[in-house]
Each structure stands twice: as C-alpha cells, then as structure tokens.
Design goal:
globular; 8 strands; alpha+beta; eight-stranded mixed sheet
C-alpha cells in the first residue's frame, strides 16, 4: 500500500512513525489542579477561565508537520469535556499546547460532508503516574483553519499490552465516517 507522498509503503511509514513517537517527550499532567477550580460558576466556565489564565487557548505550532496556527479555542475545551471526559482527559488540556508542538503526525482522513478534514496525531503523557498515548485530531475546515481535540488511550494498550481506553468520538458534529482515533493510533504504534 502506497500513497504517502514519497513512495513509502505503510509498513515503512509505520516504522518511521514509531521511531518518532519513541523519541517524543513524555509530558506530564495531573488531576490535582482540577480539584481547586471554582466550580460555582459551572465547570465549563471554570475550565475556560483556567485555560485562559494558563495560556492554553491560542494558536500553536506542530514541529512534525511545520503547521502554525493550530487553534485551541473555547469550543475545543467544550468539545473535550462534552465527549465523556474524565478528570484525566480534562487534565490533559494543561499540556495541550505541548502535545500539539511535539505530536507525531499519523494520517489524514478524506474531507467529509461538512468540508472538514481530520489530521490524526499522537503524543504521550504521564497523568497521575499512569502513562498514556494521547491521540489527537487537528480538524481543518474548508477555509484552512485548524482546531484541536484529543482522547486518551493507556500507553500499554496502544503499544501491545492490556489496559483500558478512555475513548470517545472526536466531534459530535462530524459524521462518524473515520476510524476512531484509538484504532488509528494503534495501527501505527502497535508492536507486531
């Protein structure tokens, strides 16, 4: 199977992606910071205020692709929380700018009926002393704007061991025509 732009077949690409992923930094996040949020205004308002205060919202660059202007917006925060987010998934928002920066590009899906393309990336993080693969999507709209969302998969599960996944669809407004992020991540990072 070819089609990766440089004549490389899937197995070659998988090995190259795996090497990049192994070299990627293990970022760190914890759920402790979430426990002190002022939830009297509502969890969403508290999280958005926290994200603004900590420099999470804004535009970021991915080193692997060289793409600038990848936006983490208020909607990105809402989407992460809406999709069955547990504390660990929400805590990962703290390192989202670094995930975007150090994430390894996996593949791009075909443009959907809403004129959106999903670019799938993977990064890794230790959250409350457990290691996770962070699968994330940079959704590109018809105007070329790029937006962030993510999901978690336990590191040992993605890399061939056993474990649970904390999995959810990436965007409820996008038809489910692509594979779940966790399956795409495993396709590239799973040890055969």
């Amino acid at each position: 199977m070819t089609g990766f732009g440089n004549g490389e077949d899937f197995e070659e690409r998988r090995k190259r992606v795996r090497r990049k992923f192994e070299q990627a930094p293990l970022l760190s996040a914890n759920t402790t910071e979430l426990k002190v949020l002022d939830k009297s205004r509502g969890i969403m308002k508290s999280l958005i205020g926290w994200a603004e205060k900590n420099g999470i919202l804004g535009k970021h660059r991915n080193n692997d692709t060289g793409w600038d202007g990848i936006a983490i917006t208020r909607t990105s925060i809402r989407d992460v929380v809406k999709h069955h987010a547990g504390d660990r998934k929400i805590a990962t928002l703290r390192i989202a700018p670094e995930l975007i920066q150090t994430g390894v590009y996996l593949e791009t899906t075909a443009r959907n009926a809403y004129d959106r393309t999903s670019h799938i990336f993977a990064g890794k993080a230790k959250i409350d002393d457990e290691e996770y693969v962070i699968g994330f999507i940079i959704t590109e709209d018809g105007n070329g704007r790029r937006y962030y969302n993510h999901e978690l998969t336990e590191m040992n599960k993605a890399l061939g061991g056993s474990g649970q996944t904390e999995e959810a669809p990436a965007f409820t407004s996008t038809p489910a025509v692509r594979e779940p992020i966790s399956i795409i991540v495993r396709k590239y990072l799973f040890v055969k």
